[in-house]
Amino acid sequence: MRERRNLAPFAQFCQARCVLSPPPITPLQARLARAALGLSLRDLGAATGLAPNTITRLELGRGGVHAANLARLQDVFEQRGVVFLPADDVGEATVRLRRTPGA
């Protein structure tokens, strides 16, 4: 029989020191971000280097989108002022635009 180990100290260590990456954007957030920026599928594809069909698959939640492409899409949105807000007990995950100084 295998000896059972107490993993609690390891879990405490990881919880205190491990940094988790933020969750990927949701299909709804991708649609909202593109609409907020007024970008067409073609414009967003040109900005990200992704095919419009790839963006459509993501926005419809059909899957098959590589993590690197998802990160590229999120980076472009964030560079253009989109802030991604996670879901909470009040509502779904959403987006907002960063305020520009003097606006």
SSE layout:
Elements (H helix, E strand, L loop, with lengths): L7 H10 L9 H11 L3 H8 L3 H8 L7 H13 L2 E4 L8 E4 L6
Describe the structure.
The chain is mainly α and 103 residues long. It has a single domain (22-97), classed as lambda repressor-like DNA-binding domains (434 Repressor (Amino-terminal Domain), Orthogonal Bundle). The protein contains five helices and two strands. It has a two-stranded antiparallel ribbon. The longest helix has 13 residues, at 67-79. The mean pLDDT is 84.
Put the structure in a nutshell.
The protein is mainly α and 103 residues long. The protein is built from five helices and two strands.
List descriptors.
103 residues, mainly alpha, 434 Repressor (Amino-terminal Domain), two-stranded antiparallel sheet, 5 helices, 2 strands
Q: Which oligomeric state applies? A: single chain
What's the N-to-C terminus distance? Answer: 68 Å
Query: What is the CATH C-level name?
Result: Mainly Alpha
The largest sheet is: 2 strands, antiparallel
Number of distinct helices = 5
The count of β-strands is 2
Average residue pLDDT: 84
Cα-atom radius of gyration? 18 Å
CATH architecture: Orthogonal Bundle
In CATH, the homologous superfamily goes by the name lambda repressor-like DNA-binding domains
Helix content bin: 40-55%
Strand content: 5-15%
Residue stretches low in confidence (pLDDT < 50, at least 5 long) are: none
Give the helices and strands as they follow along the chain.
HHHHHEE
The coarse silhouette is globular
The strand order across the widest sheet is: 1-2
Count of separate structural domains: 1
Report the structural category. mainly alpha
The CATH topology is 434 Repressor (Amino-terminal Domain)
